[in-house]
Amino acid sequence: MRWAGVLAVLGCAAVGLFLLARPWRPGPRASDGHANREHKPQPSAPAPAKPEVLVAEAKGVAAELLRALPGEPPAMALAGRIHYAFSDVANAEKCWQACLSIDPEFAEALCCLGETAWEHGKFDKAAERLKKAFAANPRLDQKRVFILADALMNLGESQEAAAALERAAKESPLPPFGLFLLGHAYLGLNEYEKARDQFEAVLAVDPRSANAHFSLITVYNRLGQPEKSRTHKEQYATLRKDELAESARLRPQMRKMDWADPYPVVRECHLNAGKIYALYGKAGEAEKHWLRAAAIDPQNPEPRKLLELLYRQQGRQEEAVQISPGPMMNP
Fold first, then answer.
1. CB of 208 closer than 8 Å to CB of 230
2. How far apart are CA 173 and CA 211, in angstroms?
3. Of 97, 168, 244, 291, whose CB neighbour count within 10 A is largest?
4. CA atoms of 202 and 183, how far apart (whole Å)
5. d(C-alpha 228, C-alpha 196), whole Å
6. How do residues 225-238 score in pLDDT, each as one tens digit?
């Protein structure tokens, strides 16, 4: 079986993962005494403690991808994701533009550039790039439809936003956030009954959605139903009061949390680098990165699943049993 086929069966060939989609922000982190090791990493090997060491490691993964797979858009796209995850926007965009110079319809690079523009409030560029991405590949992740729709609504293009969300809904049911966006697209088109239906659908899933109640205040006023509007206004006020109280209760705990932990991001760098190498038939490199991902996060089963699949394909049955997520989760 070809590696591309194996990864497709597992549903893990996509590169644009959430953890690499938003920049990691450095901050204080207490040392836990782990030390970096220079020899080939094993699943039980400790990850280095200092965030700057892990950041350098991740950037090394990006540089290695570009050297090992020169001119290959999937490798350049992931390298760009890694740079962007650590706030190096210039090098990220350089990678993505290089992808497009080779393949102007490479959807992943178009999506990356579109999402970056959207995050920086450049909605015209975001919409332009994401529309090109969907033209090249209509079956992109549904979350990217939401970014496109939001960009379009910020440009006053509610009709186009609604159409994009309606197409997505035909492929698979929209989650509450998608229903909420579609409701606001209809609101922008003065289609108040359709907007009402979407916001009510949100509440059917999440009755405590303050945003849905707030939107229905406007909708029912426009529909000439002030009593229902008042009811949602009261529910919204109650929910907001509860949210503020919960926020105050959790604030001391939140201050103690470590928001600067790069471990999950670096794990994803190695995990996805391994997938790219596997797609190009570089099983040895794939193994190396999946072993490192397993070392960084011993409790995450995905790198072990991929390693087990690799070892079984190579006839390494004993190693496949040893690396299997079941017995290895609590070494």
1. no
2. 20
3. 168
4. 9
5. 11
6. 999 999 999 999 99
